[in-house]
Amino acid sequence: MNGLPTAATEPCTRGNEGQPVTATTAGSTGEAARVNMAFIAAIVAVATIGGFMFGYDSGVINGTQEGLEKTFALSKLGTGFNVGAILLGCAAGAFAAGRLADLIGRRTVMMIAAALFIVSAIGTGAASSSFFFIIARFIGGIGVGAASVLSPVYISEVTPAAIRGRLSSVQQIMIITGLTGAFVANYALAKTAGGSTAEFWLGYPAWRWMFWMQVIPAGVFLGTLLLIPESPRYLVVKGREGLALTVLTKLFGAAEAERKVAEIRDSLAADHHRPKLSDLIDKASGKIRPIVWTGIGLAVFQQLVGINVVFYYGAVLWQSVGFSEDDALKINILSGSLSILACLATVVLIDRIGRKPLLLIGSAGMAVSLAVMAWAFSTAHMVDGAVALGGTEGLAALISANLYVVFFNLSWGPVMWVMLGEMFPNQIRGSGLAVAGFAQWIANFAISVSFPALAASLGLAVTYSFYALSALVSLIFVRAMVHETRGKELEDMVG
Q: Which pLDDT value is given to residue 386?
């Protein structure tokens, strides 16, 4: 089995005095489990590169739209579809990955996703028409969708319950880091070339190089995936308990490994059949399990609040209300940096106060900040054919937009993915993720593709009012449907 460098016969690494360097966590037996934090940290670091690619591939489109519109002669609807094409691929990738992960493994599917990132990066930069660009973005979307659901579930399956939320939250930090990395790269390329449509290396415009830059992190992701082991929970499901025991021993020590293998085995279906999509239906009632509806609701509301409008259309949005291209790209970098800081706060808080309180705080904060944005945009007026905001209103829009980003990344950004990775019982985790991930990306597609047309026909004020209302409804949904998962073992999840 492939694995990161670690002692093959020891449950932990050793310090200078030859003594085990471990962390401890209480198991259900009351005995201390020996946790190899160095090994876990290395695994998490590799898995979260998938989050970085998720963010980079999603954010790179921001700053390339002028080049796309000029090169392919796109209408506003055409721009929306070229931007949103990746999201249809994401929906397909999330659904397929959730099911494939139960068939061929979490790590194997992530490797396929990494290869698709490379193909997409090359194809989008080289596209000679809108049609070929859309195909390349769709391929990248399959990779993004797969990484979006598998990175968090893989992390949740190899980390201790006591710190699972913190380590799973790193995924969102890497997503935002990828988004910010794309913004920085786009800004640097446009600045150096003299604009996103200006000629750059080898005679190609800068916007094409913005896509080609993705090959570097995608290659790193693919290479490092070869160094990590398969999920032990997947191995038990496939009947490969010897390999699962080996991985769990490296993670938690021999005694804890044996206990966990038994717990995982006992958490599966009574007849020990392999996971299948029909497991999402409660056999007693004949209805879809409530936990599945909760997962779908979390996934959809994360998108209905409009977060990806900021990340996909941020540069265009700020230019439309009077900022220069250079300033708009700088605002994107500011938003990305604030997002990372908010995610770091989540890492500190998620295993202390829990998932549900963070979701409630985020919903309330987003509802207020989005309402302020809607008010600010309602005061916009036309100057020389372009939308403009007054000084006070423009400042209010800028501040509230960044507060909105902070509230989102303190709560719904990381917490939704953490919960999807841990809330489903072992038997239905892959299938539950497939359905919830599919719903998340379909909602993302609907919001992202509709934004240019809605903003043009109804105005930014009405559009942002809808996002504010969605945030308010999400608060009600969380209070009624979401149950806390903090500190619970994956084998104890029910639904």
A: 56
Query: Two tokens at 257?
Result: 């490994």
Burial of 332: CB neighbours in 10 Å, binned 0-12, 13-18, 19+: buried
Q: Up-side HSE of residue 22: CA atoms within 13 Å toward CB?
A: 18
Termini Cα distance of the chain? 33
Cα gap 414→349, rounded to integer Å: 12
Which residue, 126, 129, 55, is CA-closest to 86? 55
- Other C-beta atoms lying within 10 Å of the C-beta of residue 239: 11
Helices and strands counted in the chain (H then E): 20, 6
> How far apart, in whole angstroms, are the C-alpha atoms of residue 424 and residue 416?
13
- Which residue carries 């700053």 as its tokens? 63
Once rounded to an integer, what is the mean pLDDT over residues 420-438?
A: 84
With CA atoms as reference, report the closest residue to 445 among 97, 113, 137. Answer: 137
Query: What pLDDT, on the 0 to 100 scale, is given for residue 314?
Result: 59
- For residue 32, the 8-state DSSP code is E
Which superfamily does 37-233+283-486 belong to?
MFS general substrate transporter like domains (1.20.1250.20)
Mean pLDDT, all residues of the chain: 80
Residues 356-392: b if buried by 16+ CB within 10 A, e if exposed: bbbbbbbbbbbbbbbbbbbbbbeebeeeeeebebeee
pLDDT for the residue 300: 94
Which two tokens mark 217? 């992190």
Question: Other C-beta atoms within 10 Å of 271: how many?
Answer: 5
Segment 260-308, tens digit of pLDDT:
888 888 777 655 566 777 778 888 888 889 999 999 999 999 999 988 7
CA 351 – CA 348 distance, rounded (Å): 7
pLDDT of residue 382: 58
Q: Which residue has the higher pLDDT, 96 or 68?
A: 96
* DSSP collapsed to 3 states, 65-92: HHHHHHHHCCCHHHHHHHHHHHHHHHHH
Cβ within 8 Å of residue 225, ≥6 positions away = 46, 107, 110, 111, 114
Structural tokens at position 135: 């195909």
Sign for the pseudo-dihedral over CA of 108, 111, 117, 118: negative
* pLDDT the model gives residue 319: 63
Query: How deeply is 346 buried, as exposed, middle or buried, from its count of CB atoms within 10 A (0-12, 13-18, 19+)?
Result: buried
